[in-house]
Amino acid sequence: MSFDEEITTLAQDIMRSRKIVALSGAGMSVESDIASFRGKGGLWEKYDPEEYAHISTLRHHPEKAWILLGAMQKEIAKAKPNRGHYALAELEQLGFLKTIITQNVDGLHHLAGNRDVIEFHGNLQTVTCMDCGHHLSSSEISLDDIPPRCSKCKGVYKPDCIFFGEAIPVEALTRAHQESRTCDLMLVLGTSAVVYPAASMPEIAKSAGARVVEINPSETVLTRFVSDYIILGKTGDVLPKVVDRIKTLKKD
Length: 252
Ligand code: OAD
Description:
This protein is α/β, with parallel strands linked by helices.
């Protein structure tokens, strides 16, 4: 099948679906200049996650955890949604996309205009003091001195995201399960699908009878075992083309 035919196939699959859920990962934000985690140039090449991103590091060596967090905060603070994010927002506005389950902590789906976003791993937009619970926007803390300390009690701030060694918040987990179980098309966008429990969502959708379609420049662990098909490409290239094709098909 040619690339163009693949775009048409996905557009048709979207148009005939009753409920569509997307699972997004770091690849979705690569075109917004936010580094992904795995592979060449990924964050985990530079920072060992067990060493820098574990909750016990934040508790016992916060200055170390904040080296990674500070780098991520700075990258995210200047990032803007890309064409892939905007295409998903349009897919929601057109009435096709119900929910996004995102593993990303950058808030770009919200910024692009999507309204139903489950932030499975939390987000970096806000921080909470680990001692007194003081909660504020990340833009209000200074990254000049790390770790940033609470203006009220001098405790260490923790971004409102999930660290290794922490459980997924029950509400996000319950909703993501519910949406995955009840969709009939799951779009798996820019994720290597190796981190559980997020990676189980396509499996849950598939077992409940949904079609699973990936958009990713590379095959993943899902490709041959779970996905119905994959469109090999960047989400910022493929998603806008799919949305344009839907609009054309709707006119016909
Ligand atoms: P990964 O870095 O594991 O995977 C990124 C995926 O995006 C890969 O499959 C790439 O091929 C793909 N990719 C790269 N550029 C792309 C583009 N322009 N368009 C589409 N896809 C592209 O990131 P995640 O799967 O999101 O968790 O990682 C999952 C979790 O692992 C993260 O949420 C994070 C990390 O540890 C925590 O920190 C708790």
